[in-house]
Every structure is written in structure tokens, then in C-alpha cells.
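A sample follows:
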Amino acid sequence: MTEPMIDVRDLYKSFGGNQVLKGIDLQMMPGTTTVVLGGSGSGKTVLMKHIMGLFKPDQGEVIVDGENISVMDRQELARFRTRMGMVFQSAALFDSMTVRDNVAFALREHTKLSEEEIREKVKEKLAIVDLFGVEEKFPAELSGGMRKRVGLARAIIRDPKIVLYDEPTTGLDPLTTESVDDMIIGAREKLGVTSVVISHDIGSSFHIGDVVAMLHDGRIVEMGPPEKLRHTQEPHTKHFLATWFGRT
């Protein structure tokens, strides 16, 4: 039986007197896209930061690629994070750097590859996200969707097993949203990565997700393929989805 790539077990986290995560159990299988869907304040970002090892749980554990990252020290986590790529909400590109230098950044910082090897790797990753001839452009010269693609190329430059997406369609128009959705699907199909997306965008989530996990008030109240959630009777999920599907 295939083991989960990410296995979140009985995860609790509070800040001060505020209990944010209240016993999360969530398995994400290799090569799939799991969307954690929920409104503001539901705990999505806190959950993702546990998966990245940025937060330590009060209770429970997070097993990623067979290793318990909840007990790793800073040095072990730094090594482990080479298996992960992160695509930030705003793409978070360096404005003063060209596309090539943005994508190459991690290779120059953490490897001993020659500049020729780096140029080839950058070109290869940009081709995967369907960007050609943009290496010398600066982020300000690109559309929103293109900046997201550069962000993904940077995230996959070291061939991670897992790619995390933080609210990838926030603030985008419908056409750009569709382009970003296609980018996420394409990355999974071309690279076989395990993708984790946190989102409040129902339409995008149902388009890209193999599994959608509905997070409400620090708990996963329902999860499954989009079609299952489309016909949900779970009250919180049904209420949240009503804004999109027109249910009452």
C-alpha cells in the first residue's frame, strides 16, 4: 500500500489563548494535489507552516516523505526543505533581478554548479511552465500570471518532491486564474510532484484538486474528491460552497 507523502496526525496549535488547530488529521498521497479550502481565520496558513516545519505543534506530528519533521532541529529542517518548493501568494520575486537570476537564486546559493549548468537548468524549468525567451526580463515587465509561472519555476529549480502554493489565485482576474490553475495541473502532470494548495477560491479548488479538504474553525470537517463535496450535506461545507454553487 502506498504511504502518504504528507501525513498530519492529531495536530493541535494555539497562540496565547487562541486555539487555531484542533486535532487535524490529513493525508496527502504522492503525485496528487490536495487543496485545503477554507475562509479567513480557519487555520489554513498555520497548517501549511507546520507542513513546512516553520511551526512546532503543541500536540501531534507531521510526517513528510517518511520523516517526522515536528522533531527536527533547524539544521535538519534546512536540509529537509530542499525536498519542498514554495510558490508564494504574490510570487515574491526579487524586483531588481532578472527572471534568470530569480529562478537561479537557490542554485547559486546552495550548489556548486557552473554558470553554464545553471543557465541550462533555468531554461529547462521555464520551459516546463511554458515560458520562453523571458530570461532577461524583470518582474515588472511580466503579467501577473507570468510572474506566478516564474515563481513556480524558481520553486522547482532543485527538483522537489512537494510544491506548496499559498493562495495562488488571490487577486487575479478570471483569465489569469485559469492560467494559474492550468500551471498547477501541468506541474503535477509533468513533474509528478505532490502539490498542496491553501485557498479560499472555490472554483479554482474544484478545478485543480484531486482531494479538497474543508477546514473550518481549526478542524477538517470534510474531505474527498471535488464531486463528493459538491453534494455535501455537512453544514459548514454546504454553507461555504453555497456562495459558489447557489445552494441554500
Notes: The first strand starts at residue 6 and ends at 15. The domain at 6-92+162-245 is CATH 3.40.50.300 (Rossmann fold). The mean pLDDT is 92. Strands lie at 6-15, 18-28, 33-37, 59-64, 67-68, 84-87, 162-166, 194-199, 211-216, 219-224.
